Amino acid sequence: MSELDPFRAIDRSANPAALVAALEERGRDPAQRRLRRAFLRAVPIRRRDTVLEIGCGTGVILRDLIPMVGAGGRVAGVDPSRTMIAAARRSCRGTGITLREADGAKLPFRDDGFDVTLAVTVLLHVADAAAVVSEMVRVTRPGGRVAVQDQDFGTVVVTHPDRRLTARILDGVVDRLYEEPHSGRRLPGLLRVAGLQHVRLYTDVFQDTTLTSYTQTFFERRAEHAVRFGIARPDEAQRWLDGITAVARAGAFVMTVNYYGTVGVKPVTSRPTPRPRARA
Prior knowledge:
8-stranded mixed β-sheet; alpha/beta; globular; Rossmann fold
């Protein structure tokens, strides 16, 4: 199933440039920008922090981090895709961000090197999320924060006149496309199993009531996948898209999806208390 996810193997996908454009379009969307920046504040990202982002893509979040850490901070990003790292180098030129092509489950960094490690809307696309979280913990300093955020496609709400067709397309596509489409709700458990302490959950909601360009593209991709996977006929997929457009024109459009952010603290290993010496 998971090999169908285009973000699982970007460099081997039919159109890597389209995936680059999709990430940048999402990055510009006002609701998405609010979501990610609210999560970064909740982590929190502080002045002078050293921060590593796993699955940095085109560098959208890396560019958000630079003003947050300030001149005394350091920001690095890794991504397994050559295409994405090349795009990030272009978009982050002159910022001082360190970029490496690397797998999140095999990070090329020493132990305890970062104040914060991040993976934002990444674990949904990863075959072994626990292995990635384990590596994030390894490279985070004791007392540092490990922070992950994912959308949860079991929480998508869309206004549409045909509820059955909507459910068939949305649920059917994610069941085929992702290994764990309900990724967001598993994050607290992943961090606790990895040995992190003080695990906190932040629930936020992506909301669109105007059918923005980003949301329109999201639905168009779902319709294309529905036809490709045999979930809907081409005429059904087009009727579904037309229904969304009609609702938006009538001023009645609503789309929401829950985003779950989870932050944990790497334990500080305490030194054993020395035993008192016996008196002579």
